[in-house]
Amino acid sequence: MDQISPKPKQIFILSGQSNMAGRGGVTKHPHQHWHWDAVVPPECQPHPDILRLTAGLQWVQAHEPLHADIDSKKVCGVGPGMSFANAVRERVGVVALVPCAVGGTAIKQWARGEALYETMMKRAKESVKDGGEIKCLLWYQGESDTSSEHDAEAYQGKMEKLIENVREDLHLPSLPIVQVAITSGDEKYLEKVREAQLGMKVQNVVCVDAKGLQLKEDNLHLTTQSQVKLGQMLAGAYLQHFAP
Predict the structure, then answer these.
(1) Is the pLDDT score of 5 beyond 60?
(2) What is the largest CA-CA distance in the chain?
(3) What is this structure's pTM?
(4) Is the pLDDT of residue 4 over 70?
(5) Which residues belong to any copy of the Sialate O-acetylesterase domain (predicted)?
(6) Domain boundaries along the sequence of the chain
(7) CB-CB contact of 80 with 227 (8 Å)
């Protein structure tokens, strides 16, 4: 691999559950095999100024599926990361993505001390070792917290704690967070989790709403085109609120 561009990196952490990891274009075949169709929309094409931190903590040029070696127990497809990166790179320069999302994970699994959280922190800290600056955490999670009233009630407090912990552990007290208000999950408490996400009053935290984006037949995962749109919404929010 050629030496990665010496231009300063703007680092973005991608985290949460399967809709951040990306299931766009992933279908189940009759014989029960999951398969990604390998269709990469123009908005998600690779670019020399878009990098990705691998599971082995190496910087490489990024391409779909971004989470293939991170959410490795599942088949990954298109997520929002590449369309986000393509939409911000002209403004920010080298976009360096740190994928950390894992499908099917509840907010309690992202508590400090839990494996997912600690892996995310390890990756984030490693990402700045050879220069660059962590600019934002993009977070899309919550579908796994919509089945029980207890989980839905606890969501806001746990999410606020997560943000506090990340900022403290990375020594970035005002780290921008762009989170997604979920559009799928168990109807029972979906609205309660959305309410927490849309109503969060934490400094430097903004929310984009996935409601209205098209879902695949499973009624849980965004389609490839919805992921493209979501990445652009995340980019819009980042550029509007946080880009110099």
Answers:
(1) no
(2) 51
(3) 0.96
(4) no
(5) 9-240
(6) 10-22+38-242
(7) yes
pLDDT beyond 80 at 214: yes
d(CA 178, CA 242): 10
Query: Over the Cα atoms of the chain, what is R_g?
Result: 17
The verdict on domain 10-22+38-242 having CATH code 3.40.50.1110 is yes
Q: Are strands 26-28 and 34-36 parallel, antiparallel or unpaired?
A: antiparallel
**Strand 50-53 versus strand 9-16 pairing type:** unpaired
**Residues making up the chain, counted from first to last:** 244
CB 7 within 8 A of CB 93: yes
| DSSP-assigned letters across all residues of 56-70 | TS-EEE--SSTTTTT
pLDDT above 60 (res 117): yes
Please name the amino acid found at residue 202: V
Looking at the annotation, which residues are catalytic?
A: 18, 218, 221
Nearest to 200 by CA among 239, 242, 162, 226: 162
